[in-house]
Amino acid sequence: MTSQDIVFVAVGELDQKSVESALRRSVYTLRDYSFTKNIPVRIAFCSLMNRDDIQLSFYNLDDFAFKSGTSYFASSGKIGLYDFLDERHGGPLPLVVYLGGGKSSVTEKAVYVSVKENEGQNIPKKIEKALNRPSPLKQKVLLWTEVACLGLFAIICGVVSYKIKHNPVKINPNVVQKDKIDYVRVYTGDGDRLILRVAGEEDAPEIMRINEDEVLARLSDNGVWTEVEYHGLHGYVHSQWLKTTYEKNEKTYTVNEYNYEITDTAALYAFGKAALEQGYTELGTSYIKKAADANLISAKWELYKQNNDVGLLKEIDKAENTYEEKLITYYEKRADVEEKVNNKKTLADKFRRMAFEQRQNESAIKRQAAKKLSEYYMNKGDVHKAAEYYETAIERGLKGDDDYMYNLAKKLDPNLQSAESRKWYEKTSYYDPYYYWW
């Protein structure tokens, strides 16, 4: 069966949070399209920015939302985008979504949607419209309908925006009253994370995603949505993914207030990130530090982005037996069990993909750490150390920057005659073999 490919392209000066937010806004639109059209959907991402610090784990986009057969892949840079489009044969044209605005130069090989940085709310509708493009005749019929609905849509958006603005998410550890609540554990059965929303509605803004096995304080439950507290974050989750018991050492225990603490390293990091996004810098940073202390290099990278601590970069560069590696081992073992014992190949493939993406994410962070260390030593005037770290970054998959490598070569030897200088010069597109002949 042919698949519908969607390529998200970051342009301009976007940050990690903006890109992830745009993708998360799109995920359910793509899921619904996949189900309705009975066609697998594949997602790609590449960056056309001058920066290389946008790193994505597609596991964070909840691959459970897509039907079986969906695959994820990533490419980097304009060359990766064009190579991907050139290799396609048949099937529907890919949809290229430009995050940050811009026009497409691939109109013959793909259709495109341009989303400016302040249009994040509109990205699902833009994608849906592009994927379900009507015939020319229907377009004329629908034109005036769209115009007529525009005013009503603006009013609704205004009301929703007002509601969200005047009902902000608040962290308040004192909200939970122990005599009025009980405790429940998140259980999806396949490692997926549970979305905590500001209201019990499918389209309500997302606060964070809570890892499986985490314990929540349950305040109320209408059978579909459960009102909960998660260490001061108040919101709503789907009731079907909650349990009141848990298994340990082949015994069944009841979830209680003594389970209500965050101990899992990945959960510490997820909560810390959510607190940061809500503006609680001190609280969020404290949880991220706990995750970093457990050798989660994603947490160390987050801390580095906050304070540019070179020591953290060195820790990341030399990190061994990381928490990410423990997750990879767990996912791979879980995949074997699901396939060989439970005969669930689809679920096994999912865990293998999660292991692959975790490995890619760890590699990307280590690559960026080596690149940043190279830049640090370059600014310090230690060119040999800068060259050493940049070599490491390239070995980890960095696509070398011509200007930077040429600058390295010239600083090592202004005449480009030494072996080390020539090595870097020859890596650039500026290399001219006749330079040495003359």
How are the SSEs placed, and which strands pair?
Elements: E1 4-10, H1 16-37, E2 41-47, H2 77-87, E3 95-99, E4 111-115, H3 123-131, H4 136-165, E5 182-186, E6 194-197, E7 206-210, E8 215-221, E9 225-230, E10 233-238, E11 242-243, E12 245-248, E13 251-254, H5 265-277, H6 281-293, H7 297-307, H8 310-318, H9 323-340, H10 345-380, H11 383-395, H12 402-412, H13 419-427, H14 434-437
Parallel strand pairs: 1-2, 1-3, 3-4
Antiparallel strand pairs: 5-8, 5-11, 6-7, 8-9, 9-10, 12-13
Helix pairs in contact: 1-3, 5-6, 6-7, 7-8, 8-10, 9-10, 10-11, 12-13
Alpha-carbon Rg, integer:
24 Å
Overall number of strands: 13
In percent, how helical is the residue content?
40-55%
Number of helices: 14
Largest sheet: 5 strands, antiparallel
Form type: globular
Stretches where pLDDT falls below 50 for ≥5 residues? 67-71, 135-144, 159-168, 172-176
Distance between the termini: 58 Å
- Helix/strand structural class: alpha/beta
Roughly what is the average pLDDT, rounded to an integer? 79
Strand content: 15-25%
Q: Helix-strand pattern, N to C?
A: EHEHEEHHEEEEEEEEEHHHHHHHHHH
Structure summarized in a few sentences:
The protein has helices spanning about 15-35, 75-85, 125-130, 135-165, 265-275, 280-295, 295-305, 310-320, 325-340, 345-380, 385-395, 400-410, 420-425, 435; strands at about 5-10, 40-45, 95-100, 110-115, 180-185, 195, 205-210, 215-220, 225-230, 235-240, 240-245, 245-250, 250-255. The chain is of the alpha/beta class and about 450 residues long. α5 packs antiparallel against α6 and α12 (about 400-410) packs antiparallel against α13.
